[in-house]
Amino acid sequence: MEEKIELSGREQRKVLFRLLSYTKPHKRMITWAFLLLLLTTIGDIILPILVKIFIDDYLQPGKLEFKPLLFLGSTYMTIQIVKSVLLFFQQVKFQEIALYIIQQLRIDIFSKVQALGLKYFDKTPAGSIVSRVTNDTEAIKEMFVTVISTFIQSGFLLTGIFITMFILNVKLAFFCVIIVPILIFVIVLYRKMSSKFYLDMRERLSQLNAKLSESLQGMSIIQVFRQEKRLRKEFGNINEKHYDAGMKNIKIDGLLLRPAIDLIYIFALIIVLSYFGITSLTYSIQIGVIYAFINYLDRVFEPVNQMMMRLSLFQQSIVAGSRVFKLLDEQQLAPCQNEEQPQSIAEGKIEFKNISFSYDGKRDVLKNISFTANPGETVALVGHTGSGKSSIINLMMRFYEFERGDILIDGQSIRDFSKNGLRKKMGLVLQDPFLFYGTVKDNIRLHNSHMTDRVVEEAARFVQAHTFIERLDDGYDHKVVERGSTFSSGQRQLIAFARTIAANPKILVLDEATANIDTETEEAIQTALANMRKGRTTIAIAHRLSTIQDAELILVLHKGEIVERGTHQELLAHGGLYHKMFLLQNGAAERLEDVVN
After folding, report:
1. What main location does UniProt list (predicted)?
2. CA–CA separation, 98 vs 588, rounded Å?
3. Exposure class string for 443-473: b at 16+ Cβ within 10 A, else e
4. How does pLDDT run across 257-297, given as a tens digit for each residue?
5. By Cβ atoms counted within 10 A, which residue in 354, 370, 488, 513 is the most buried?
6. Residue 589 pLDDT > 50, yes or no?
7. Alpha helices in 329-382 (DSSP H)
8. What is the mean pLDDT of residues 220-225?
9. Alpha helices in 329-436 (DSSP H)
10. Distance (Å, rounded) from C-alpha 399 to C-alpha 116?
11. Is-contact 378 567, C-beta < 8 A?
């Protein structure tokens, strides 16, 4: 569940200014857009003046002058046409600016996600992150497309209208100014009430995405264990809360947008008409002035209505922006490396010195771990589930930061290597390999343009993957769908092996890499691994002890501590935990063999 975000007025202004900072690279385009907006606004202000002149000066019996009327009519039509053309270019400019900004914002978010440590992903649902990159940035786009232009245009228009009103009739203009504080009060009240509901809606939408993502990834388990009803119920509950938040916001919109503003408009109209009605008893009044005031009054409330309508989009954008910036400000980054160090791993000697580590800062999963893997040696990690095997690999691969002890490679702290220098010479093969969308060749090469097709094929041959790849449609150009779901587990593992070998690492890390490979394939892989380990330091997690009997050093872990260490024969002779695990596995194998026979 995501942490709920509360936004005060100060925090909303902070988010707004930060969003506006993305406009800095586009100052020239924004200047043009606002210039076009100003010209269209001037056109809106001039048009009622032309009609007022026509009514007061020319709409009289016996005073039909053709040339002035032709000039007024042609001027009116010209302004309308030019205004329409300028409005088109203005909207295109604002759309273009918005798309540029959102493009940059999405790049920033994606880059940030790439830089986050695995600790962040351990506690944050993938759907929530996807929602921030897609839905939230799309909501922000609306602010730059419509909200800002509407607010600026409305500001220009209101300023121009009130100036014109004071020119036409100072006393009546002062009466009309009375409505401004009332409008401001309604706007502030709406902003304060709607922000809470929009925040709730964005959070519920994020939860919907997270639940949908979880359901899609675990669809096979859901169907096998008949969990469809439970998932539908959970999804329905979240959807119901999203609906409730949406309905609360609709009620606020229905009360404070059109109805409230229209009521204030009627009140202002009554003031104007009453003023002219009372004045007409004493003085003659100009019909054109009445028309202009009523027209301007209507034009005052139309931009106010537009701003109120856009205020809902503004609130969505601010809430979405706060969620995006919360991700951009996330401090759980991947462990830092010394990027000024150009050297990379040369020999591959690994030393763990008194390493203790905790994921949550409370309970240690590793306790005082110390061992050495000399160049070319294989160190195997064995132990029951939760003993700390994967944590050792996670620290060595720099997926997590450690605070106590140190890890040395070639006598130098692992922190002192640059990220590229460290990862370039370390190869990792997981128990559940990940394949990217693309081709088999792309998955082995990982889009390394310097790696030739010959190197790719040699790597595949080395791990015994070439035979099955050649049988595929299009061979190495065979299409790989998402996560390689059309391949068997063993085939995915072989491709992952080929990917690792092609990179020619100095240190090889195997997380039960042969677990998903059948016995026949495993024998071929073991032969390939024996050749591959020559000249490379290998750290291997193994559940099947038969796969690591030739390791130079076997570490037996229990509850985060190394309880036994030695070669296979030494540990068997010791008669400890390793000996019991070996007997248990061999006994199970013998019983299975008896059943088969």
Report:
1. membrane
2. 65
3. bbbeeeeebeeebbbebbebbbbbebbeebe
4. 777 777 887 887 787 777 777 776 566 666 767 777 777 77
5. 513
6. no
7. none
8. 76
9. 389-396, 419-423
10. 10
11. no
Contact (CB, 8 A) for 199 and 136: no
Higher pLDDT, 565 or 221: 565
**Interatomic CA distance for residues 465 and 463, integer angstroms:** 6
- Tokens 């050749």 identify what position? 531
What angle, 0 to 180 degrees and rounded to 10, lies between the N-to-C axes of helices 148-168 and 66-115?
150
Domains of the chain, with CATH numbers?
12-328 (1.20.1560.10), 337-425+534-597 (3.40.50.300), 427-504 (3.40.50.300)
pLDDT: which is higher, 167 or 111: 111
CA-closest candidate to residue 570, choices 592, 553, 587: 553
Residues near 97 by beta carbon (within 8 Å), at least 6 away in sequence: 23, 26, 29, 30, 33, 144
CA distance 405 to 395: 11
Name the nearest CA neighbour of 149 among 14, 38, 308, 253.
Answer: 38
Alpha carbon distance 356, 405 (integer Å): 7
Q: What residues are paired with 510 via a beta bridge?
A: 429, 540
Total count of residues recorded for the chain: 597
Confidence band (pLDDT; 50, 70, 90) for 34? Answer: confident
Question: Dihedral sign, CA of 138, 139, 144, 149?
Answer: positive
Residue 366: pLDDT band by 50, 70, 90 thresholds? very high
Q: Are 44 and 83 in contact (CB under 8 A)?
A: yes
Single pTM value for the model: 0.70
Q: Is 539 helix (H, G, I), strand (E, B) or coil?
A: strand
3-state secondary structure of 486: coil
Token pair 């009130």 is at which residue?
A: 162
DSSP assigned state of 147: I
Helix axes 228-256, 287-328, angle to 10 degrees: 150
Axis crossing angle, helix 258-280 with helix 179-217, rounded to the nearest 10: 160
